[in-house]
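Protein chain data
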Amino acid sequence: MDEKGKHALVFGASGLIGWGVVDQLLSNYPTQGTFAKITALVNRPLDVRDSFWPLESPERPDLQLVSGINLADVTVQSATELLQSKVKGIEDVTHAFYFGLLTRLITLAAYGIQIPGGVFQPPYKESMGPLPHAYQKTLNYPFMRAVLQEASAGRQWTWCDIRPDAVIGFVPNGSAFNLTAHWATYLSLYRLIEGPNAKVPFPGSLAGYNSLYNEASANIIARLAIWASLHTTEAGGGQIFNIADQAKPESMRERWPKLAAYFGLEGVAPFEGEQEGEMLKPSEYIKKYQWEAEELGVRSSPVFKGGFLDSYGFYLDFDRQLSLDKVREAGFEEEVDPNVSWFKAFKNFKEAGMIAGC
């Protein structure tokens, strides 16, 4: 690779979005030679042979995988010393991508979806805000922005933050925040137990089934993050950008039948009334039948419990679509069919042996 190429440092590289950033960089996005080195930082040990990233080749950027990077309880000095001791070539890093634990707070919580009755009317725009002071105090997000604004003032580097809703993607070592993995675990097991063409009701309310949203794949988030890092005039200065696979919002009424069909099932509307009480919650269903998948050798991560799905279709029962006008005006115009993103992630989980095959 060209030694003059850029060196990307990716924090949280084994997480849902961080994995996608490394995957896109190693796939030579946006063009071959743009990045020469990729340093992937993870906390838990990860063998590169189990990462499912593109294999080493003369055309691919060089990869350095560094484990044991835990920034939960560090000072600036200790974090600096840690990185200097573990990261070869830290002095020539040109771009940094942070997708650590707190990243999940910089999503739609910034628009107040956790507040009963909501605060803003969708489509949500980056100019909306701030939240009422009582709720701002419960989020790390404003503090993180303030730290970055102060640190970058008068410096030659700049930054932006990216806001998706639900993230679609694959990770090889499990993630409690991976909605895609939870659905894949539930639906693949449902097919295994109930058989092909079985009807699977959406586990939620009718309002949740019909509410509008636009999800974002880890790939599209990664591509925007990389694009923004290379277009600092258009995207720097601490700007906020919403992102989704497509600007058009959809609902689970449209998505659920297609997700179920991928596993050979018929996705139908939620049960209501007495029928609702007869249906096992996803976590209950997985707990009851997981042993059958294990007998088939499925190495499902222990975090894929399905408990998040028990409430997902009930509490997200309101429209929450994002406006993509700002990111389009900045110059990022890529879109992808969300169904393709879901199916690609499902395929990756199958190939990794993490869900039952069907």
